[in-house]
Design brief:
By secondary structure, the chain is mainly beta. It is built from one helix and six strands. Strands 5-3-4-6 form a four-stranded mixed β-sheet, with no helix packed on it. It is globular and about 40 Å long. About 5% of the residues have low confidence.
């Protein structure tokens, strides 16, 4: 019996719609801090799902993809006093 999903595929939830899907079906985002002394932090897409740090997952639904740029849940993990620009950076 052939199948696309491994028998023991890890499951993750979309942070926008809370739908639970296999990890490989979701896009992972990580918190990327600004480099070279610039203030700010933003969510950055992690297409290989290998970057270090806490990851947030988003499903492929158009509405979820649009809303991830304004998702505020990652701020709990950011250090207080960041005060910089925020957003989503695609790789």
């Amino acid at each position: 019996m052939a199948t696309d999903v491994p028998a023991r595929s890890p499951m993750r939830s979309c942070v926008i719609c809370r739908q639970t899907l296999p990890k490989h079906a979701l896009t992972r985002y990580v918190l990327a801090r600004a480099q070279s002394g610039a203030a700010g932090a933003a969510l950055m897409e992690d297409p290989r799902k290998r970057l270090p740090g806490r990851g947030w997952y988003c499903c492929a639904e158009d509405l979820c993809r649009r809303k991830i740029s304004s998702y505020q849940g990652w701020r709990r993990r950011a250090k207080a006093g960041d005060g910089g620009e925020t957003g989503v950076h695609r790789v």
